Amino acid sequence: MSKSINSKLESFRALIFNCRNEDIAPELATQGVDAEFLDEGEARYHEVMRLMELQKKEYHEEREAYDIYFAKKDDVEKAFQNTRDLARELSTNDPDLQNRLKFSPMSRLPLGDWIQAGIDFYDSLLRESALLQRLERFRVSQERLNQEKQELEELRQLRTKALVEKGQAQEATRLRNQKLEELEDYCRLLKTLAGLALQHRPQLMESLGILVRS
């Protein structure tokens, strides 16, 4: 589309609403463009404007949700990585323990899986009493581990909320585009009918935004 959505809507508004002009309406009626037809156009226009506002709201909420998520993500990730690195170092000589704690590479995991893997790690770690005692020696208490796990669970919830908001924003855009296309089709027909009705009155056609070749 060569025009921006806003400029398109402004031209559609002028076309539909100016067709009510007392000099234009009787001419259009000869082509079947009556009050009912124009009421339909106004309703389509207002529906698109409503969906424009809804889409802006949904995208604002999406950005806000992702801002909150990313503001928390780095700190939670750093705390988890520090605890994981220390636990791995303290369990170096116990392959069975390391296997239970699943020290597999995290960088290859999708973000959602990475968060779940982190939660699973804390669940496994909190069952290892001997390792927990060693961690206490380095100021990593069970209370701290539970807190870090809770923060990962909260991070997962924030990510889920952000994804929901993203889906709602995409749906709002789809609905807006659908109704905008319907409005475009309506206005294309209205322009054609107005051109036929006003072909001998070019100044009135121009007031509807219909260019007249000189």
- Total number of β-strand segments? 0
Shape: rod-shaped
* Average pLDDT taken over every residue: 93
Order of helices and strands: HHHHHHHH
Query: What separation lies between the terminal Cα atoms?
Result: 26 Å
Q: Low-confidence runs (pLDDT<50, min 5 residues)?
A: none
- What's the alpha carbon Rg, rounded to whole Å? 31 Å
Q: Please report the number of helical segments.
A: 8
Tally of distinct domains: 1
Into which percent range does the helicity of residues fall? over 70%
Main sheet: strands, sense, barrel: none
Structure class:
mainly alpha
- Beta strand %: under 5%
Account of the 3D structure:
The chain has one domain. Helix 1 (5-18) runs antiparallel to helix 3 and helix 3 runs antiparallel to helix 7 (142-197). It starts with a helix and ends in a 7-residue tail after the last helix. The protein is built from eight helices and no strands. With 214 residues, it is mostly helical.
